[in-house]
Amino acid sequence: MGRIALGLEYDGTKFNGWQVQPKQRTVQGCLIEAISYVANHEVKTVAAGRTDSGVHALQQVVHFDTKAEREQRNWILGLNTHLPKDVNVTWAKSVGENFSARFSAISRSYRYLILNRVSRSSIHHNKMWWYTQSLDIKLMQEAANLMVGHHDFSAFRAKECQAHDPVKTMEYIKVSKQGDCIAIDVKAQSFLHHMVRNIVGVLVPIGDGRQPVSWALDVLESRDRTQGGVTSPPEGLYFVNAHYPTEYAFPTVSTFPVVW
Question: Which fold has domain 107-239?
Answer without folding.
Answer: Alpha-Beta Plaits (3.30.70)
